[in-house]
Specification:
- By secondary structure, the chain is mainly alpha-helical.
- The protein has two domains: 1-96, Rna Polymerase Sigma Factor, Chain: A, CATH 1.10.1740.10; 98-168, Orthogonal Bundle (Arc Repressor Mutant, subunit A).
- It has helices spanning 2-6, 10-29, 35-52, 65-86, 100-108, 111-119, 122-133, 138-145, 149-167.
- The chain is globular, with a radius of gyration of 17 Å.
- InterPro entries: RNA_pol_sigma-70-like, RNA_pol_sigma-70_dom, RNA_pol_sigma70_r2, RNA_pol_sigma70_r4_t2, RNA_pol_sigma_r2, RNA_pol_sigma_r3/r4-like, WH-like_DNA-bd_sf.
- Pfam families: Sigma70_r2, Sigma70_r4_2.
Length: 168
């Protein structure tokens, strides 16, 4: 589908949008409660997909077009948070309910890994999710979660130690 989009196939682009936009909107809303920002990020993401489809090489977070799409969206969300911070408007925070990814993670991994993930403190899980699943850098994770970069590094280290201990 991405190859067809790269050739300028609007039908393929519409199919991609129709298949992925509901999922992407839910995932973005888990990280940002401001519908205006979510809509802006969605628009920027799909515009970037249309423009950059030719550069897709399957080397995204999980090697798929969906992983590539999420990487673009996550970075656009970080950019939106940065713009909001520069304009001194308060950042909308996601709700405290579990993210869809957390629910999928618990069911995807075997009981041992899923159990270890469930025992992590929410702030440690959030860092693992952003850095490992979403493929964000320390700086991007810092902006996304609204904590200093040093805190992100510390939480990532604590999460790795806790996972190692839980799995040994």
């Amino acid at each position: 589908m991405v190859r067809a989009i790269a050739r300028g196939d609007r039908g393929a682009f519409e199919d991609l949008y129709r298949c992925t936009s509901p999922w992407l909107a839910v995932r973005l809303r888990r990280r940002c409660s401001d519908d205006e920002i979510v809509a802006e990020v969605m628009q920027e993401t799909y515009l970037a997909v249309w423009r950059a489809a030719g550069s897709f090489a399957g080397a995204a977070v999980d090697g798929s077009a969906v992983g590539w799409l999420w990487t673009i969206a996550a970075r656009r969300l970080v950019d939106a948070f940065r713009r909001r911070a520069r304009s001194q408007q308060p950042l909308p925070r996601a709700g405290t309910w579990p993210a869809a990814e957390e629910e999928v993670l618990s069911g995807t991994f075997d009981d041992e890994v899923g159990g270890a993930l469930r025992t992590l403190a929410p702030e440690l899980r959030a860092v693992l999710q952003a850095m490992v699943l979403d493929g964000l850098s320390v700086r991007e994770t810092s902006v996304l979660l609204g904590v200093p970069e040093g805190t992100v590094k510390t939480r990532a280290r604590r999460a790795r130690i806790a996972m190692r201990e839980a799995l040994s």
